[in-house]
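Exam revision sheet. Question 4 asks you to relate a sequence to its structure. Input first:
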Amino acid sequence: MPTVTPERPATPRAGPEEVRLARLVLSILPRIGRLASQVPHERGALTLERARVLWQLTEGPRRSGDLAHRCVLTPATLSELVDSLERDGFVRRSEEPGDRRVVVVELTARGRREIERFGELMTVLVAKVLATLSSEKRGRVAAALTDLQQALSQAADKEASHVR
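Answer key, structure tokens:
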């Protein structure tokens, strides 16, 4: 008997305007990354790479393989970062119950405080940039980002419902 797989609902097609907007949004990401790289130099905070690992752990413990994938790092590179984060008391490694071969990484209280501090420093840097915009432009940016955040959240919810 053939296997029947549920069909995904049709995804709206992206036209030229949506592609232009997508490129604009994506072009901002490296610039925000450059701002983030200034944080450690200014205040002795985490490096961007270490912050990226900690940020992925804010939602809860992760298997090391999943964490490497989410951070777009090789397992060896992630292992080195986790080694240093563990030495500094920011993360804790443990074995997954039921499968000792699987390593699980989680934030410690100190790691949570450090990633929150990094987030606060990033917020200050981005706020300084936003302060250069007029009040009207800041309002438009806020409205557009709120709409984008909602659309991304809905897309993630739809994707999660199809994975289950």
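Marking note for examiners. The CA atoms of residues 49 and 138 lie 30 Å apart.
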